[in-house]
Amino acid sequence: MTRILVLGGTSEASQLARALAQGGADAVFSYAGRTAAPVAQPLPTRVGGFGGAEGLAEFLRAEGITHVVDATHPFAAQMRRNAVAACDREGVSLCALERAPWQAGPGDDWRHVPDTAAAVAALPEAPARVFLAIGKQTLDAFAEKPQHHYLLRLVDAPKAPLPLPKTSFVIARGPFTAEGDRALLRGHAIDLIVAKNAGGSGARAKLDAARALGLPVILIDRPDVPARRVFDSVEAVMDWLPHPARLGE
Ligand code: NAP
Questions:
Q1: Which residue's CA is minimally distant from atom 42 of ligand 1?
Q2: What integer best gives the mean pLDDT of the chain?
Q3: C-alpha distances in angstroms, 200 versus 10, 92, 102?
Q4: Top mutation candidate among 79, 84, 87, 224 for ligand 1, by most atoms within 8 Å of CB
Q5: Whose CA is nearest to atom 27 of ligand 1?
Q6: Binding site membership of 102 for ligand 1 (Cβ less than 6 Å)
Q7: Over the stretch 58-86, which tens digit does the pLDDT of each residue have?
Q8: Is ligand 1 within 6 A of the CB of residue 167?
Q9: For the residues of the chain, what is the DSSP string, one character each?
Q10: What residues form DSSP beta bridges with 97?
Q11: What are 26-57's pLDDT values in tens digits?
Q12: What is the pTM of this model?
């Protein structure tokens, strides 16, 4: 009997959920609960942390999970580590569904940095208008460079004051288009972009827009996670899972 846990929070996770639902799989979808109105899924859905690797291991046992697909964002490092530890402990099969990182092409002006602190350090000293395309969780670090005006793009309007003195924000949920992002960058007179190397197509629009406008990008590398089986497409994950005809057995 196969019972699957999908760790979600990405468009790839939603695509996988659709494929599993269509195949009649016995599967549970999990959200961290970071956004006010997460995308509805065609699978039974739970929301909120498990309580670390131990909590996740307990959940796997209690729910009789046989396979975990970690389809979280490449920067959700803690969840990814917890999934490896919990699956190891419980003898549950694990794979990750992960988009390949973006690679610079002709015309791109990308400066790669290892983490958020290095992205802050890489910002110029002279005041600039920066599109800080990194979500809301690691904004605090940029308070070290308060001279810049920061444009943020958030899924939900902030409930508390932002930790940066000069900001504007737009509320929007991807996928985005290069045309739309060009208009955004032009409209806000952006000088440079800070982004995470998330990979995938929907979030790539800002990089294509940056190339078209000749803007530099400070690109934060992905955090390290323990080795695990990785697939880069929903089809490959579906092939790895027990045969579709038996999914719901
Ligand atoms: P994180 O730092 O790796 O995770 C922190 C904690 O949040 C985890 O230890 C876990 O809590 C809980 N958690 C994370 N993902 C979960 C899931 N799918 N289901 C249940 N609990 C989850 O993760 P994060 O960077 O805050 O990301 C949170 C969510 O946002 C993830 O679903 C991720 O896919 C999505 N997301 C993240 C980014 C990003 O840039 N980081 C961008 C887009 C979307 P417990 O330890 O209590 O289990």
A1: 73
A2: 95
A3: 10, 27, 8
A4: 79
A5: 76
A6: no
A7: 999 999 999 999 999 999 999 999 999 99
A8: no
A9: ---EEEE--SHHHHHHHHHHHHTT--EEEEE---SSSPPP-SS-EEES--SHHHHHHHHHHHHT--EEEE---TT-HHHHHHHHHHHHHHT-EEEEE-PPPP---TT--EEEESSHHHHHHHS-SS--EEEEES-STT-GGGGG-TTSEEEEEESS--SS--SSSSEEEEE--S---HHHHHHHHHHTT--EEEEE---SSTTTHHHHHHHHHT--EEEEPPPP-----EESSHHHHHHHSSPGGGTT-
A10: 231
A11: 999 999 999 888 999 999 999 999 999 999 99
A12: 0.92
Structure tokens at 199: 């990979």
Question: In a 10 Å sphere around its CB, with 0-12 CB exposed, 13-18 middle and 19+ buried, how is residue 129 labelled?
Answer: middle
**Banded model confidence at residue 218, pLDDT cuts 50, 70, 90:** very high
Return d(Cα 134, Cα 116) in angstroms, integer.
9
Q: How confident is the model at residue 100 (pLDDT cuts 50, 70, 90)?
A: very high
Residue 176 carries which side chain, given as an amino acid letter? Answer: F
CA of 124 to the centre of ligand 1 (A): 31
d(CA 109, CA 14): 32
pLDDT at 244 over 80: no
Q: Are 32 and 46 in contact (CB under 8 A)?
A: no
Q: Is the CB of 75 under 6 A from ligand 1?
A: yes
Cα separation values, 2 from 52, 53, 60, Å:
24, 21, 12
